[in-house]
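Mods, move this if it's the wrong board.
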Amino acid sequence: MKYFSFSKALKDGFYFLSETARKSTIIWIVFFVIMCLSVSLQFVLEPFIEQFVTFYGNLLASKIVDTEAILILPQFSGLFYLYVFCVSLVTTYLTCLVTKSAIILIRYPDFVVNKDSLKISFKVFLNYVWVSILFTSLVITGYLLLIIPAFVWLVTYRFSEYFLLEKEKGTVYSFSMSRKLTTGIRWKLFFSIFLTGILVALFSSLLQSISMNHQTVAHVLSGFINAFVLYYMAFFFASIYRQLIENYKLVPSMDPEFVKQYFIVRYSDDNNEEITSPNEE
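Not the wrong board. C-alpha cells:
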C-alpha cells in the first residue's frame, strides 16, 4: 500500500536544512544570494506597484469606464523589465539547484553538497523552466475552472520537477511519473500541502509583524523568509517524494510499469540503456 508520513516530512525539512547548513558552504551562499535577490526585487518593484495601484485606483475612483485607459500600464524603462527578467531567471536557476540538493540529501543524508554535485546542464535547466511553466499554467487554468481542478493538478503533478532533475528524461516522462506516483494518495497529499502552507504562513506573519513599522527591515526580513520557505518546502517535498519511491522498492508489484520506468531502465550519457535491480536504488 502506498503511504508517506506527514510528520516525517515536516521534521526532514528542518533536520536536513540545518544539517546541510553546517556541512556545506555552497548551501549558505545560494541561500544568501536568493535572499539578496528577493530583497532587491522588492525595492525595485515597490515604485512599480505603487504607481500601478495609484493609476488604477484613480481610474476606478473616476467611475468612468474607459476601455483604452484600462489597457495602459504604468510606463517604466526597458532596463526595469530587463532587470526583473534577469532576477527571475537567476532565482529560477537557484531554485533548481536547491531542489536538486534536496533530492540528493534526502536520499543520502551524509553526502556533502559541493559545486560539482550541483552541476546542471543547460538542456536540463531549460526543461526545468518548461516544466515549471507548464505546472504553473495548469494550476492557474485550474483556478479559472472553478478552483477544484487547480487542487487536483497541483497535487497530481507536484513532483514533476523532482523526476526531471533526478532522471533527466524530459517533460512527458516527468509529468507521467508524477501522476503515477501520486495515484491513490492525492487527498492525503493535498491536506499535507494545505497544513504546511498554513504553518508557513503563520511563521511568515509572525516574523513580518516584528518589522511592520520599518520598511527596510521589513524587506530584508521578507527576503529571508522567502529564501527559508523555498529551502524548507524543497526538502519537505523531497522527503515525501523519497518516501513514496521507497514504497515501490518494498512492493514492486504495486505498479510494475512504474518500477520498470523508474528503477530498471536508465539512460547513460551516450543514450545506452543500463539495466539495474530495484534493490540497487
